[in-house]
Amino acid sequence: MENELLKTFDEEGNETGIEQRSVVHQAGHWHETFHCWFVESQNAGTYLYFQLRSSVKKDYANLLDITAAGHILSDESPADGLREVEEELGITLAFDEVIPLGLIKDELVSPAFIDRELCHVYLYDRQVPLEAFKLQREEVAGIFKVCTNDFKKLWFRELNEIEVAGFIINDFGEKILQTRTVARRDFVPHEDSYIESVIKAIDNLILKDL
Q: Which residue, 7, 8, 47, 48, could crosslink 29 as a Cys pair with Cβ 3.0–4.6 Å?
């Protein structure tokens, strides 16, 4: 995986070359990723689906994150990123089933790496029954839903804790239903500007459909 080839870009989004994934994260090059947010629209509002990252993940283990996401390789287009949905969640989507939210920057800096992403962000607006998920257990340990408005208040520090509901996979591969009380520290620390852009784009799309 660390030897995967990725296109690199400058701050303005101009392509600068191709490097191995390990080099990209070491040097902090901008590169392309695919993000797909599952959202469920209800009369009472919208709900976001989060994946629970596996405990064996090298980075951000056991934290809640984007429903499905991954890197776009140097010979791929954003549409190829849909493979991440199938691989991680066991759900097959066609490209015309997802709604593009645009290109959004996101930067994650840790002692181990610098992850500067040009994120091609998509929305899948449909209720997905929990039994439909067939998780890639080395990547994803569970799926949880949260009220979008509650999540927004948590992220921007209007609330200290919120409830999420969903399931985890136990050691026998069984789905165990759970409700958890979570804080901001239980989520992957994406940039505030990224989260704000995603929520605003979702709100705008939902309002159009009302």
A: 8
Q: Domain total for the chain?
A: 1
CATH number where 155 lies:
3.90.79.10
Kindly report, residue by residue over 140-176, the tens digit of the pLDDT.
Answer: 999 999 999 999 999 999 999 999 999 999 999 999 9
pTM of the model: 0.95
User: How far, in Å, CA of 47 to CA of 185, rounded?
Assistant: 20
Distances from the Cα of 151 to the Cα of 71, 105, 146, 165, 189, angstroms: 25, 20, 7, 13, 13
Which residues constitute the domain of residue 84? 5-209
Q: What are phi and psi of 160, to 5 degrees?
A: -90, -30
For residue 189, give the nearest of 71, 91, 60 by alpha carbon: 60
